[in-house]
Design brief:
361 residues, mainly alpha, two-stranded antiparallel sheet, 13 helices, 64% helix, globular
Length: 361
C-alpha cells in the first residue's frame, strides 16, 4: 500500500524511499515484529479465556507426557498472531500489483485456515484429535493443485527444476510441474507441523530459513545479480523479499512469547501456514531443492517419522527412541531448551550453506 506513495517524490524525497524493495522489506519486518508484540498479550488473554489449551498427550507416547505436564495450561492457536502480523504487514508495505504477493497471502490464509479448523475441532472435542488426516490432507492438496495449475498455465513462469552445485543442472518438468508443486507445498507444511513440538523450535528455525529466502528472493528478482550468480532470473520475485521480511519479523515477534517456557503455542494454525508459505516461496523463486538445505531441520524431523514408521512396519524395530527426532533427543536426556537451541544452531548453519549454493558450481 505504501508503495503507491513513491510518485509523490516531487513533494518530498522521502516518498521515493517507498520505491525500493530493501526499504520496504525493512519496514515490513519491523512492522510485523511490533504488531506481534502489540497484539500478542490481548490474543493470548483471549485464547486463555476461551480455554484454547493444548492437549499434548499422544497415544502410545506415555514416556514423553511428563515433558509436557507444564504446558497443559498454555494456550495454542497462537498462529493467528503470526498470520495476522504477516498479512497486515505485507499489505502495508508490499507492491499490491505483484501477483506473487497475492499468491503468498492466499497460501498463508488458506493453510492457516485449515490449521485453524484442526485446532478448533481439538478445542471443541477437548482431545488431541482434530480434522481427520485425510481431510487435512485434502485441504493442503486443494491449494497445491490450485497453485500448480495457475503457474503451469502461466506461459511466462519457468517450469524447470534447477539443481544447485551443478553447472547447467536443470530438468524440464513439463506437466509434472503440477504434482511437483503439490509435493513441495504439502511436504513443507507437514514437515514444519511435525517440527512444532518444543517451545520455540519451529518458529526459530522458520526465522533462519525465511531470512535466507529473503536474500534469495531479492537476488533472483534482479537481472544483474542473477546474471552474475548464474541463477535463474525470476521477474517479480524481488517483491517476495517484502513478504519474507514480514515473516522474519513475525517469527521474531512470536518467538518473544513462544520461547521457553512458552506463553503460547502456534498450533496447526501457525505451523501449516508457515510450512505452506516456505514451500510456495521456494517454488516461486525456483529454489525448491535449496529448500531441502535451508529447511534441513524440518526435512530431518519429517524423515525421522517416515523412517521410524517404515522400520517398525517392516522390521518390527524402532530406529529412534521416539519420533519426531526432537523427542528422541529428549528421551536421551537432553533438556528441552538445549534441544531447541542446538537445532537453531543447525538451522542457522544450513541457512548459510543454502545461500552459498547460489554461487558454488
Amino acid at each position: 500500500m505504501l508503495y503507491f506513495l513513491h510518485p509523490l517524490k516531487d513533494l518530498s524525497i522521502v516518498f521515493n524511499l517507498f520505491r525500493y524493495i530493501t526499504f520496504r522489506s525493512a519496514g515490513a519486518s519491523v512492522t510485523a515484529f511490533v504488531l506481534c508484540l502489540w497484539l500478542g498479550p490481548p490474543i493470548i488473554r483471549w485464547l486463555k479465556t476461551i480455554k484454547v489449551t493444548a492437549n499434548n498427550k499422544r497415544e502410545y507416547a506415555e514416556s514423553i507426557h511428563n515433558f509436557y505436564a507444564h504446558k497443559n495450561e498454555v494456550p495454542t492457536m497462537g498462529g493467528i498472531l503470526i498470520v495476522a502480523s504477516v498479512v497486515i504487514s505485507t499489505l502495508l508495505w508490499g507492491n499490491l500489483t505483484n501477483r506473487f504477493v497475492w499468491i503468498l497471502i492466499l497460501v498463508v490464509l488458506w493453510f492457516g485456515g485449515v490449521g485453524f479448523l484442526d485446532d478448533w475441532i481439538k478445542l471443541k472435542s477437548k482431545s488431541s484429535k482434530g480434522l481427520t488426516s485425510w481431510t487435512k490432507l485434502a485441504g493442503q492438496l486443494l491449494m497445491g493443485i490450485a497453485i500448480g495449475l495457475y503457474l503451469y498455465m502461466e506461459p511466462s513462469f519457468d517450469k524447470w527444476l534447477y539443481i544447485p552445485l551443478i553447472k547447467k543442472g536443470a530438468i524440464y518438468l513439463g506437466v509434472f510441474f503440477i504434482p511437483f508443486v503439490i509435493l513441495v507445498l504439502v511436504g513443507s507444511s507437514n514437515a514444519l507441523n511435525l517440527t512444532d513440538g518444543l517451545d520455540g523450535l519451529a518458529i526459530g528455525c522458520t526465522l533462519f530459513s525465511t531470512a535466507a529466502f529473503a536474500v534469495i528472493a531479492y537476488l533472483v528478482g534482479r537481472v544483474d545479480f542473477s546474471s552474475y550468480l548464474n541463477v535463474a532470473y525470476v521477474p517479480e520475485a524481488g517483491e517476495i523479499t517484502v513478504f519474507c521480511s514480514a515473516l522474519v519479523g513475525a517469527s521474531a515477534g512470536f518467538l518473544w512469547f513462544n520461547s521457553y517456557p512458552a506463553e503460547v503455542m502456534m498450533g496447526d494454525t501457525g505451523s501449516l501456514a508457515l510450512g505452506g508459505a516456505l514451500g510456495t516461496i521456494s517454488v516461486l523463486t525456483k529454489k525448491e531443492i535449496v529448500l531441502l538445505i535451508v529447511g534441513g531441520v524440518f526435512v530431518w524431523e519429517a524423515l525421522s517419522v517416515i523412517l521410524q514408521v517404515a522400520s517398525f512396519k517392516m522390521r518390527k524395530k524402532r530406529i529412534f527412541l521416539m519420533s519426531p527426532f526432537h523427542h528422541h533427543l529428549q528421551l536421551k536426556g537432553w533438556p528441552e531448551s538445549k534441544v531447541t537451541i542446538r537445532l537453531w544452531v543447525i538451522a542457522f548453519i544450513l541457512a548459510v550453506v543454502g545461500l552459498s549454493t547460489l554461487k558454488v558450481r
